[in-house]
Amino acid sequence: MQCPKCHAPMNTYNRNGVQIEQCSGCRGIFLDYGELEALTRVEAQWAQPAPPPQAYPAAPAPAWGHHGGGHGHYGHQRHRGLGHLLFSS
Amino acid sequence: MATDVLPALTARVRSAAHPAAAPCVCAEPGAVLADRADGTVVRHGDVVAKAHAPGTDAAQLALRMAAADHPALDGVLLAPLHPDAAALHDRLVTLWPHGSPLAPDTDPERAPWEDAAALLARLHRVDTSRLPFPLPLMRGPVKAARALARLRAAGPHPGAAPVLRAWAVLPAWARDEAPMPSPWRLCHGDLHLGQLVRSPAGTGPWRLIDVDDLGLGAAAWDLARPAAWFAAGVVGPAEWARFLAAYRAAGGPAVPAGGDPWPALDVPARALSVQIAALAIAKASAACRGLDEVEEAMIDACARMAEVPVVAQEPVRPTGAMTRAVPKEGETGAAK
């Protein structure tokens, strides 16, 4: 591809997963449709911390605790009553 | 074996409810509330009689009854109708006011987690040096060791190996092979949600019942069963958080007032997980049935423990006033 402004050849670069073309003569940059938005999105992800992985504030738990990711057995327990919680077992 | 005492116990509770030999006109004359190896409990009207487990130590039960009857425990433990246990055949029988327990179909979200925690905190804060009698040792580790003995006696089971491994790495005190770490506080010894009743029944405040394992020991043991449920995923994080926050708000001394409570809870919660899993396997084997989802969850927790070293337990607070404890069952020697 040639630069639409100075007609020098353009080189393709990959920036954050987005393909961009830069002119080897005037250093101008050509963006395909949607690539500017893609770069903006990538920039925003860099600036923001990742969202917390779970809704509950992570209560301290032992390292050997249940890490079921989501609901443990208590989710089922809720519909079954107190069951084992009432006995010395 | 536990049913032998039932007819005599039923007659005893009836006569206690109608002391002047008045004819019984009770709308609900009698009910067997429990009939297990660890005790038989019968209700008649407003009176509940408990035949304690065969082999219960009479001297230790007398001290536990004295604690339940003492004003320092007023509002924490349900007070007995009579402070003394009476012999009935080869069993010791105690009399209590009827209280209403949690219904089995209660949503765990609606269980009185805060009340349970606050009662425990008050129990643990009792200044035992002011009680005019010595106290026996809390029997939590004894019960855990007994559960392991039952597991070993139950024969081979695919779930037994991780439970035995988890038991083996516990410190000696949690296996009832060494004294519990200080400070010793007054503990319930067998807390679960069946140990709460409203008294007076229906509308009264919650009280703790069942003094059979009450005594001096490591207070974190009383938090260990809810902690084990939470760690196994059997109780949700919201319920556990409510329980822990209420215990702390009431000044409970078993865990630090803030921060991570698990250094204090790790060993007792492991021990209770092992105890629950061991009894579950022993009972399932005896009944020739499989394990249910909750029982499997407790064994899974034991399996995960193998990969995590035991947290060294440090006392939450410096040792306070020395408290006296009577020797354990079967031991002799002066109380210290």
From TrEMBL, chain A:
<feature type="compositionally biased region" description="Basic residues">
    <location>
        <begin position="68"/>
        <end position="77"/>
    </location>
</feature>
<feature type="region of interest" description="Disordered">
    <location>
        <begin position="49"/>
        <end position="77"/>
    </location>
</feature>
<feature type="compositionally biased region" description="Low complexity">
    <location>
        <begin position="56"/>
        <end position="65"/>
    </location>
</feature>
<dbReference type="InterPro" id="IPR027392">
    <property type="entry name" value="TF_Znf"/>
</dbReference>
<dbReference type="Pfam" id="PF13453">
    <property type="entry name" value="Zn_ribbon_TFIIB"/>
</dbReference>
<feature type="domain" description="Transcription factor zinc-finger">
    <location>
        <begin position="2"/>
        <end position="40"/>
    </location>
</feature>
<protein>
    <recommendedName>
        <fullName>Transcription factor zinc-finger domain-containing protein</fullName>
    </recommendedName>
</protein>
From TrEMBL, chain B:
<dbReference type="InterPro" id="IPR011009">
    <property type="entry name" value="Kinase-like_dom_sf"/>
</dbReference>
<dbReference type="Pfam" id="PF01636">
    <property type="entry name" value="APH"/>
</dbReference>
<protein>
    <submittedName>
        <fullName>Aminoglycoside phosphotransferase</fullName>
    </submittedName>
</protein>
<feature type="domain" description="Aminoglycoside phosphotransferase">
    <location>
        <begin position="45"/>
        <end position="258"/>
    </location>
</feature>
<dbReference type="InterPro" id="IPR002575">
    <property type="entry name" value="Aminoglycoside_PTrfase"/>
</dbReference>
